[in-house]
Amino acid sequence: MDATALPAFQAQLHTALAKPPTETRRIFHGRGRCWPGLEQLTADWLKGPSAGQLLISLFKEPEPALLTRLLAMLNELVTTPVWQQSGARSLLLQHRSRDGSPLEVIWGELNASPVVHEHALAYQLSLGKNQNHGLFLDMRLGRQWVKKQAWGKRVLNLFAYTCGFSVAAMAGGAEQVVNLDMAKAALSRGRDNHRLNQHDLSRVSFLGHELFKSWGKVRKLGPYELIIIDPPSFQKGSFALTRDYGKILRRLPELLTPQGTVLACVNDPDIDCQFLIDGMAAQAPTLRFVQRLDNPPEFTDVSPEAGLKALVFAQG
Predict the structure, then answer these.
(1) Cα–Cα distance, 139 to 136 (Å, whole number)
(2) Which of 124, 154, 171 represents a domain boundary (last residue)?
(3) Domain extent for 88
(4) 239 pLDDT band (50/70/90 cuts)?
(5) What is the pTM of this model?
(6) pLDDT tens profile 93-118
(7) Which of 88, 103, 168, 314 has the fewest CB atoms nearer than 10 Å to its CB?
């Protein structure tokens, strides 16, 4: 972080808050490297039914003097008319590089479990306990795509986390959704997300299992017209992207219907789209590449291949 770039960050926040989004959105994405000197900063507007919370995330610990400058800027922000008219409930700073990713309340009152909205769907977040709050905002258009594709389909959601794709699929009229993730606490939050949206839970399954030990159960609940794969780059003891993604791809033909579709995702800046395209050709050659989904415009990256990659493949 560069102190001379902080006025640009301040100006962007002022612009965004002058007319804040009506739903949850990222409003500053320094991680896309389009703002020199601000590469370690992001700002998310977490908007619920009423007030919003502004979450600033700091991905690398700056020098003490620079952190002091940032805090002074944020404390100045909350005194401005733009802030006061924004409807904000709190201003939060998350130190993502520190142990436990602690959350600092700069102003206002923290709502640690806010319900936020995206595309008119509700999701409950968890602030201050984990590095990630429960909804990856760069996948906004991916969830929208799933909602549009899901009507009448059986959907398999691998690495489901808090079931954002599942909520979108059910909202789009999916017949059945199977969520699999080894983190049972995340799946429990996913069940809550479905309840928030008044979904029929008899049509949603939650499997708290390690994927590579559960193929039989996953196959038994299929076949599926739509499979979503959105893994972490690394999950200790269970998954490493470059080592294990191919093991999933080779299973796809036996899990899909003859006209089935796959949304395969990678969010590692060092791995490009070709990794998935080549991997699919080698492991599941009956699936052809169809398209890469756009990323939300607020996640613009100086290198498109460094951002989220969400690729669609289809049988035949």
Answers:
(1) 6
(2) 124
(3) 3-124
(4) confident
(5) 0.95
(6) 999 999 999 999 999 999 999 999 99
(7) 314
